[in-house]
Amino acid sequence: MNNILGSMRKTIQEQEMIQPGDRIAVGLSGGKDSMALLHELSRFQKFSPIPFELEAITIDMGFNNFDLDAAKVFCNQLAVPYRIEKTDIAKIVFEIREEKNPCALCANMRRGALSKVMNDRNLNVLALGHHADDALSTLFLNMLYAGKLNSLEYSSYLSRTAITVIRPFLDTAEADIIGFIKSNCIPVLKSPCPMDRHTKREDMSQLLKTIYKDNPHSRKNLLTAMRNENQCNLFK
Ligand SMILES: Nc1ncnc2c1ncn2[C@@H]1O[C@H](COP(=O)(O)OP(=O)(O)OP(=O)(O)O)[C@@H](O)[C@H]1O
After folding, report:
1. C-alpha 235 – ligand 1 centre gap (Å)
2. ipTM, two decimals
3. How far apart are CA 200 and CA 164, in angstroms?
4. How many Å lie between the centroid of ligand 1 and the Cα of residue 230?
5. Are 124 and 164 in contact (CB under 8 A)?
6. CATH, domain range 4-229
């Protein structure tokens, strides 16, 4: 198992993701990736040469039976200020709008809620838990369903809200995050969303696993291809 703190730190430094005095919010879904990210950013904060503030925010989508107690205890143990924002997003998406493809609207409304809280708390950077395997499944999603060669960015500035989104785990493997969560007994909340594990992104992740089974080198080659700008020759 690789050290996820090391890979995260390397990514933050190489991509110059953090500037002195940044006030960073981790978008904490309660899932394994954002729980691991909060844990590791809080460790990194203690020795980072660049000083930054750290908080966590969960957008409570309004699903029944979503218990955030374990996330509260977790943030408390890390001494990270934690804010839960209650919303009616689930009701709007599933009951009022009865969306056939709810994920896009849901993600959009969640982003709006996150930027409102960040604004209230004067936070300027949003850290998300996406990892290298999310980047690969997003690439396939975009190629197969949107006809474009596009994936997640290390960092992007959203001028409308003046928020910079960063993804410090983008060079980290999902398997390493899973190993880290298990060996450190970090709690993971069960997603209350009815779409959980029934998304196109999940289909892409299963498709990729089948490809990796046939060709064990293919995951590494795909990641190399994504970084290989010099040899990107597409119908030129
Ligand atoms: N309800 C939420 N509140 C705050 N941030 C969220 C929420 N849901 C997702 N995020 C952020 O967006 C990222 C990507 O969302 P996605 O739905 O793919 O994550 P997830 O699979 O639910 O959970 P995780 O990535 O934490 O394992 C998460 O890693 C997290 O940083």
Report:
1. 36
2. 0.95
3. 27
4. 33
5. yes
6. 3.40.50.620
pLDDT digits (tens, 9 = 90+) for 7-20: 999 999 999 999 99
For residue 34 the two structure tokens come to 């954002």
What are the pocket residues of ligand 1 if the criterion is a CB atom closer than 6 Å to any ligand atom? 27-29, 31-34, 57-59, 61, 110, 128-130, 191
Single pTM value for the model = 0.96
Atom 25 (ligand 1): residue with closest C-alpha? 33
In the three-class reduction of DSSP (H, G, I as helix; E, B as strand; rest coil), residue 7 is classed as helix
Distance 22 CA to ligand 1 centre (A): 21
User: Among 8, 28, 29, which residue has the most ligand 1 atoms within 8 Å of its CB, making it the best to mutate?
Assistant: 29
**pLDDT tens track for 102-131:** 888 999 999 999 999 999 999 999 999 999
CB atoms within 10 A of CB 44: 18
Inter-CA distances, 92 with 57, 62, 112, 180, 194, Å? 21, 10, 14, 36, 14
User: How many A from CA of 211 to the centre of ligand 1?
Assistant: 26
Boundaries of every domain in the chain: 4-229
Q: Ligand 1, closest atom to CA 59?
A: 3
Instruction: Write the DSSP string, 107-130.
Output: HHHHHHHHHHHHHHTT--EEE---
